[in-house]
Design brief:
Helices cover about 5% and strands about 50% of the residues. Strand 21 (about 425-430) and strand 22 form a beta hairpin.
C-alpha cells in the first residue's frame, strides 16, 4: 500500500480513492478523517468528542493499524465543540494543555482565547500543514494555531513519537493540520455554516460564516477534483483583571526592602509594590481560504495535487489600567513608596496584617497612574504546494513535493500613561476576589484640590513598539517506497528533504519611551502645545472610562468607578497625536503625514539597527524499514529507521548602544564617552553548523484480538526559534541615584553604574531528546476502549535564559557588560502516564442508550529537569563600569531563583466529557482542568517567577438534526465563569504571594449548518 504524507488519498491496489485516514473528509458537519504521510501507518489514538459512534469506531480502527503514537481530532470535532480555535479544541486531547496569556513573558495580559499548545508538559512543539513544515513570521517561527480557522481543516493530529520518514523537530510532539481535498469525498459536496456568538461581559454579537464546495469528475484525460473553502470569523470579548505585583519587606533593619509602614514601625511587614485594576476589549478577526486541485490518470498510477492555503488573523486590544505608581520589579526603591493611610477620614477602614503580610487596609501612594494601551497584531500565512505521486510498478511508489510559504507579522503597540494626585484607596486581598475602593475626592474630580492645581491629571509618558516581520520558506522532498510481499521485511522507504528559511525581523524593541508631560509635580506643571497638558487645560486629550460592572461587580466598591484616561483614539493614531506638540522633544518612531524621523529607513518606523535577518538551511535524508511477524504466537509488526540531519544558521544584526537621558554630567567620563546612542554597523556571522543522526524504532504486539501493546523509541530535535538566533545586543545603563540630604528631589551623583542588556544567540544548537513510549490498548466494543500510555523523555542541550558577562567597545571605550539571553544549558528527564477511556452505554434501555463518557488523565513528573541555576548566580556578571563587583541586585539578578521547573508544565491534567446521542439529538458537556504551573521564570514587569493556580473550564453544546441536510445548535463556553489567578514567587524557598486575577466572558453561540 502507498501512503501519502501530504494528505492525498492513499493507493490500495490500483485505487487512490480510499484511504485509512482520509475515509470521508466531506463537509463542515460530517464525520471526517484525513490522511498525511505516516498517518496511515501511524499509531493514532483518535480522540473523538462529538458523540458520533461512526467517528469513534473509525478512530479505533485507525489506532489499531498504525505504528507511532498520535492523537487526533476530526474536522467534525473542531466544528462542533464550543471552542473558538484549533488551540482550544486541542486541549481535549490526552497530554495536551494550552496557555491562556497573551505572552508567557507578560502574564499581566490575559488572553480571552487559548494561545500556545503544550504536549506532555513541554512547549517544544513542531507545527505542520499536511505533513509539511509550517513556518511563520511570528516571534517563535511556528504556526499560531489560534490564528487558523478550524473550518479549513479535515483533521488535526498530535504526533507524540517519531518514525524515520517524518521531518525532524518537536521533541514534545508535532501538531499537523490536515486540510480537506476533493478526492477525500466520493462526489460533490456543498456545505455552509453560520454562527452568531454573544459574550455576556462585552455584550456584543459577532458572526462566523463559512462555505465549502468540492467535486470530482471523470474525463477522457483522467479524473479531476476541485475544492474551495472560505471562512470569515469575528469575535469580540472582554477581560477584567485585579490584583497586585511583587511583595516587598517593609520595616526596621538593614535587610528590609523599604521603610516601615505607618503604624507598624517596629515590625517587618510584606507589602505589595503595586495594586492595579484593568479592563481590555479584544477584537479578533480570522479569514481563511483553501483550495485544492487534484488529477489522477485512468489507471490511477499518477496523482497530482496543487494546494493553496491562506490564513489571516488580526487581534486588536484596547486596554485601560489604573495603577498605584511602581517601577520595574528589580527597582526596589520605586516599589516601596506605598504606605498605610494616616488620613483621619480612613479610620473606618482597619488594617489587616496576617502572618506578616498585608491583607487589607486604607493605603496612600501619593499618585495614581492611568495607562491607555492599544495593540494591533496581524499575522498572515500563505502556503502553496505541489505534490506528485507516481507508481511505475505495483510495489514501487515515488512521492515528489514542492512547498512555498510566505508569512508576515506586524505589531503596533502604543501606550499613553497619565497621572493624577490624590490616591487614597481601600484594598481587601482576603478571600478569592480582591476588591478596591477609591477614597480620594480628587480621583472622582481631578480639580478638587483647587483652581491652582491644574495639573492633577496630566499626560505623563508615552511608549511605542513597532514590529514588521517577513518570513519565507522553500522546501523540497522526494520519497521512494518499495513494498515487499511474502517476507518479514514488508517495505523499505527512503527519501531526502531540503528547506531554506529566511526571517527578517524589524522591531523597535520598546526602545522609544519618553516623559512627555514635563515635571508634573513641579510649579507650572507639564507642557502641551504651550499650555498645561492636564484635564482642565486640554480636555480633548482625555476621555472618561467607566468600570461599571467591573469584574462582574465584584472588583470595585464605593462610588468611584469612572476614571480619566488619555484618549484611546489618540493612542491609536500616535503619530498625528504627537504632531500637536508634546514637550521634551519626544518623537514617535512611526511615520506621519508631516514629517519623518531623520534616522528612519524611508517610509518605515525603523532605524537600521532595528532590522535583523536570519537564514536557516536544513538537509535531511532517511531510510525506513517496515517489518511484520504474523506467524508468531503473538504477532508483531513495526518499523525502524535512521534520519540524517544537517542544520546551518547565518545571522545579521547590530549592537544598540545606550544614551544618558538625565544628569549625564554626573556619570563617570568613560560612561559619558561610551553612551553615544546609535548602533554598530550590521554584522553577519556564520552561526550554528550542526549535524546528527536520529534513530527510530516502533513495535506493535497483538496480545489478543482486542488487546494490543506498543513500544516506540526515537531520538528527536527541537530547533531554536529564529528570533532567538539574531545577532543583536540591546544595552542600557543602570545606576543608583545619590540625592541631596536636604532636598531628596535633587540628584547630586550616581553610583553602582552598570552596563546591562539583552542579547540573542546565533550559535544556539537544537535541543535533543530520547523519547520512549509504551502503550496498552483494549478495544472492548466497536466504540469503546480503555488505553494507558507510559512515556519518558531524556532532554539535553536545553535552551534557557542565562546571564553572562561580555565586554563591549564603543567610541573607543570598552566597558564590562552584564547580558541576559538564550544559551544551551542543562539536561534532565520528564516522564508520565496518560490514561484514556471512551464508552457508549448502548446496553441501557431506550433514551438512556444514548449516554456516553470520555475521560482522560495525564500525570507528568519533571523534577529532574528543574533549573538548578537561576538566571544570575555568577558573581562576575555583576560588574560596574569600573570593573568591580556591584553589591546590589539588578536587572539580571533580582529574584533569580534556582530549582524552577520548565515553564507551562502542569503535573496533573484531566478531561471529562459527557456525551449523548440519540436519534436527532447530539450533546456534550466537557470539563478541562490543569494543575498549578510556572508561566514564566522572569516576568517582564515584576522580574520574578510567576505561576498560574489550578484552573478548570466547563463548555457544552447541543445540536438537533432537522433533516438530512440541516443542523441547528447551541454552544456555551466558560459556563463556570472561571477565574484565572496568578502568584509571584517571593523567595528561594518557593513561597508564593497572590498576583493578578482575571475573568472573561461566558459565551453563547447559535449555529446553523447545512450540507447538500
Amino acid at each position: 500500500m502507498f501512503n501519502s504524507k501530504k494528505g492525498v488519498a492513499a493507493m490500495s491496489g490500483t485505487h487512490f480513492k480510499h484511504s485509512l485516514l482520509a475515509a470521508s473528509i466531506m463537509a463542515l458537519s460530517v464525520p471526517s478523517f484525513a490522511q498525511t504521510n505516516n498517518a496511515a501507518t501511524a499509531d493514532v489514538e483518535e480522540v473523538v468528542v462529538t458523540g458520533m459512534r461512526n467517528s469513534i469506531q473509525n478512530a479505533q480502527d485507525l489506532k489499531r493499524n498504525s505504528d507511532t503514537v498520535i492523537d487526533a481530532i476530526t474536522a467534525t470535532d473542531i466544528g462542533a465543540l464550543p471552542d473558538k480555535s484549533v488551540t482550544e479544541a486541542l486541549q481535549r486531547v490526552p497530554g495536551v494543555t494550552i496557555e491562556r496569556f497573551a505572552s508567557s513573558e507578560d502574564p499581566n495580559h490575559f488572553a480571552d482565547e487559548g494561545t500556545g499548545v503544550l504536549v506532555r508538559g513541554l512547549d517544544r512543539v513542531r507545527s505542520e500543514i499536511n505533513g509539511r513544515d509550517a513556518f511563520s513570521a511570528n516571534p517563535w517561527g511556528t504556526l499560531n494555531f489560534e490564528d487558523i480557522p478550524p473550518e479549513l481543516l479535515g483533521a488535526v493530529e498530535v504526533i507524540k513519537n517519531q518514525t524515520a520518514d517524518r521531518i525532524s523537530g518537536g521533541i514534545a510532539g508535532t501538531v499537523n493540520l490536515v486540510t480537506r481535498k476533493p478526492f477525500d469525498s466520493e462526489g460533490r459536496v456543498l456545505a455552509a455554516s453560520a454562527k452568531a456568538s454573544y459574550g455576556d461581559m462585552r455584550e456584543t454579537v459577532t458572526p462566523v460564516a463559512s462555505a465549502l464546495f468540492s467535486d470530482r469528475w471523470e474525463t477522457g484525460a483522467g479524473e479531476f477534483g476541485f475544492l474551495v473553502s472560505a471562512i470569515q470569523s469575528e469575535l469580540e470579548t472582554r477581560g477584567d483583571g485585579i490584583g497586585v505585583g511583587n511583595y516587598y519587606s517593609r520595616g526596621p533593619g538593614a535587610d528590609a526592602d523599604g521603610a516601615p509602614l505607618n503604624g507598624y514601625e517596629d515590625q517587618q511587614v510584606y507589602m505589595p509594590g503595586v495594586i492595579s485594576i484593568r479592563t481590555a476589549n479584544n477584537d479578533r478577526t480570522r479569514e481563511g481560504f483553501g483550495s485544492s486541485l487534484q488529477w489522477q490518470n485512468a489507471d490511477e498510477t499518477i496523482v497530482a495535487t496543487v494546494e493553496y492555503i491562506k490564513a489571516e488573523a488580526e487581534l486588536i486590544t484596547r486596554e485601560y489600567v489604573v495603577y498605584s505608581p511602581y517601577e520595574q520589579g528589580f527597582v526596589i526603591g520605586g516599589n516601596t513608596a506605598i504606605n498605610i493611610s494616616t488620613n483621619p477620614d480612613d479610620a473606618d477602614f482597619p488594617t489587616v496584617i496576617e502572618d506578616g503580610f498585608f491583607k487589607a487596609g486604607a493605603l496612600d501612594s501619593g499618585l495614581l497612574w492611568y495607562n491607555t494601551r492599544f495593540n494591533d497584531t496581524d499575522n498572515s500565512v500563505e502556503d502553496a504546494s505541489f505534490n506528485l505521486k507516481l507508481r511505475p510498478m505495483d510495489n514501487l511508489t515515488i512521492d515528489l513535493d514542492v512547498q512555498r510559504v510566505d508569512s508576515s507579522n506586524t505589531v503596533v503597540n502604543n501606550s499613553f500613561m497619565s497621572q493624577s494626585t490624590g490616591s487614597r484607596f481601600y484594598v481587601d486581598l482576603r478571600g478569592s476576589n480582591p476588591s478596591i475602593e477609591y477614597l480620594s475626592p480628587s480621583v472622582r474630580n481631578p480639580n478638587t484640590n483647587g483652581a491652582a492645581a491644574t495639573n492633577t491629571n496630566f499626560i505623563r509618558s508615552l511608549l511605542e513598539q513597532n514590529v514588521d516581520n517577513d518570513a519565507k520558506m522553500d522546501a523540497y522532498s522526494a520519497d521512494v517506497t518499495y513494498e515487499i510481499d511474502d517476507n518479514w521485511i514488508t517495505g523499505v522507504k527512503a527519501g531526502v528533504y531540503y528547506a531554506d528559511k529566511d526571517l527578517v525581523v524589524r522591531d523597535t524593541e520598546y526602545s522609544n519611551w519618553g516623559v512627555v508631560g514635563g515635571c508634573g509635580w513641579c510649579a507650572g506643571g507639564p507642557g502641551f502645545s504651550g499650555t498645561s497638558a492636564d484635564l482642565s487645560q486640554s480636555p480633548t486629550e482625555f476621555e472618561k472610562v467607566s468600570f461599571d460592572n467591573f469584574y462582574r461587580g465584584a472588583g470595585i466598591n464605593g462610588d468611584t468607578n469612572e476614571f480619566w484616561f488619555a484618549k484611546m483614539s489618540s493612542v491609536e493614531d500616535l503619530v498625528e497625536t504627537t504632531l500637536r506638540g508634546y514637550e521634551n522633544g519626544w518623537m514617535p518612531y512611526g511615520t506621519g503625514s508631516q514629517w519623518l524621523r531623520a534616522d528612519r529607513i524611508p517610509g518605515t518606523p525603523f532605524a537600521p539597527n532595528h532590522v535583523g535577518a536570519v537564514n536557516e538551511e536544513r538537509q535531511e535524508a532517511y531510510v525506513r524499514v517496515d517489518y511484520a511477524f504474523d506467524d508468531l504466537a503473538i504477532p508483531l509488526k513495526g518499523n525502524l529507521g535512521l534520519r540524517q540531519v544537517n542544520y546551518q544558521l547565518t545571522s545579521t544584526g547590530f549592537e544598540n548602544y545606550p544614551t544618558l537621558s538625565n544628569n549625564a554630567a554626573l556619570y563617570p567620563q568613560n560612561v559619558q564617552d561610551f553612551a553615544t546612542g546609535g548602533s554598530s554597523e550590521g554584522v553577519t556571522v556564520e552561526g550554528t553548523d550542526y549535524s546528527t543522526v536520529l534513530p527510530t524504532f516502533n513495535l506493535t504486539a497483538s496480545l489478543q484480538d482486542d488487546l494490543i501493546a506498543r513500544f516506540a523509541v526515537s531520538k528527536g530535535l527541537y530547533y531554536p526559534s529564529l528570533t532567538d538566533t539574531r545577532n543583536i545586543k540591546v544595552m542600557q545603563i543602570s545606576k543608583t541615584d545619590i540625592t541631596d540630604p536636604n532636598d531628596p528631589t535633587q540628584v547630586i551623583g550616581v553610583t553602582d553604574v552598570q552596563l546591562t542588556g539583552q542579547a540573542k544567540n546565533p550559535f544556539l544548537e537544537p535541543e535533543e531528546s530520547t523519547n520512549i513510549d509504551v502503550t496498552l490498548e483494549w478495544y472492548f466494543n466497536k466504540t469503546d476502549s480503555l488505553t494507558a500510555s507510559l512515556f519518558h523523555k531524556k532532554l539535553d542541550n536545553i535552551i534557557r535564559e542565562r546571564a553572562f558577562a561580555a565586554p563591549v567597545t564603543n567610541n573607543g571605550v570598552t566597558l564590562p557588560g552584564s547580558f541576559s539571553g538564550p544559551v544551551n544549558e542543562g539536561s534532565g528527564d520528564i516522564q508520565g502516564i496518560e490514561l484514556s477511556y471512551t464508552q457508549f452505554y448502548d446496553s441501557l434501555p431506550g433514551l438512556w442508550s444514548g449516554l456516553g463518557l470520555q475521560l482522560n488523565y495525564t500525570y507528568i513528573d519533571q523534577q529532574d529537569i528543574n533549573d538548578s541555576e537561576g538566571i544570575d548566580v555568577i558573581e562576575d556578571i555583576r560588574l560596574g563600569v569600573d570593573g568591580l563587583p556591584l553589591p546590589q541586585d539588578g536587572r539580571n539578578t533580582f529574584r533569580s531563583f534556582t530549582d524552577l521547573p520548565l515553564p507551562s508544565y502542569s503535573e496533573n491534567t484531566f478531561n471529562i466529557t459527557g456525551m449523548y446521542e440519540y436519534e436527532s439529538i447530539s450533546a456534550r458537556l466537557a470539563y478541562n482542568w490543569r494543575s498549578e504551573y510556572l508561566i514564566t521564570r522572569r516576568d517582564s514587569d515584576w522580574f520574578a517567577p510567576v505561576y498560574a493556580k489550578d484552573t478548570g473550564y466547563l463548555d457544552g453544546s447541543v445540536f438537533y438534526t432537522l433533516n438530512e441536510n440541516i443542523k441547528v445548535g447551541l454552544e456555551v463556553s466558560n459556563l463556570l465563569n472561571t477565574e484565572t489567578r496568578t502568584m509571584n514567587q517571593l523567595n528561594q524557598e518557593g513561597d508564593k504571594t497572590d498576583g493578578l486575577n482575571f475573568v472573561t466572558d461566558r459565551r453563547y453561540a447559535l449555529s446553523l449548518r447545512a450540507q447538500f
